[in-house]
Amino acid sequence: NGEEGWHNVRRWTRSIDGGMLAQRFVVVPINEQNVHWWLAVVCHPRRAMESPAGAQGVGAGEPRTSGEAPRIVCLDSATEPPPKGRTMGFLRGYLWREWCARHPDALASATSEEELANAKVERTAALKAVVADVPKQANGYDCGIFIIEYLLHLLRSRSALASLGLAPHQHWFGQAAVSHRRERLRHIAGVLQAEAKRRGDADVG
Fold it and tell me: How far is Cα 176 from Cα 167, in angstroms, rounded to an integer?
């Protein structure tokens, strides 16, 4: 599960100031059984872990807009996407373990295993799973390129990131843009391959 997996990569985020949960958005590429890629974006995870009441709009942690509410948004280009429940459990478990490691004093009031388990359920449940209405692929092989296009669009548009999962996103781009991106990447790969052959050196980045 995500908590056990955290131990395997716990050093990955130690150099990040405040840790992963200090970030407003955490982007996670997901691979399903080596056959399909999709993107998970964790929005405002700290709000969920600090105060589940605040995550639902009560108290000091109250979001000013719906866009500031904690959630895990799934961006999947498949017309019939795989279920997300197992992956959501992994992500929530990882984020919970990261929070516990970074903020051990925050759960000092939990005097029993039962209270700790209840706190975990309450706070991770505040990270609602949202399946975004995003552009879909018209073939069976462009899922990885769609991830690139999703990311580029989010990086270019502050409003798209703020409203992620809360409005239709089908207008972002179409299959033609993805096919063009694939051809550009193929061309770049060809140029690099030719340069590597000319130099006799594989590292030409």
Answer: 22
CA dist 55 and 46 (Å) reads: 9
What residues have CB less than 8 Å from 95, skipping those under 6 apart? Answer: 2, 20, 21, 42, 45, 48, 49, 124, 127
Lowest pLDDT segment from 9-23, 86-100, 109-123 = 109-123
Q: Is 201 exposed, middle or buried (0-12, 13-18, 19+ CB in 10 A)?
A: exposed
Comparing 26-30, 114-118, 186-190, the range with the smallest average pLDDT is 114-118
With tokens 């548009």, the residue in question is 157
Exposure pattern of 40-53 as b/e (b: 16+ CB <10 Å)? bbbbbbbbbbbbbe
- Bridge partners, residue 70, by sequence: none
Query: Is residue 188 very low, low, confident or very high in pLDDT (cuts 50, 70, 90)?
Result: very high
40/165 Cα distance (integer angstroms) = 11
DSSP 43-104: ESHHHHHH-HHHHTT-STT--SSGGGS-EEEEE---SSPPP-HHHHHHHHHHHHHHHHHH-G
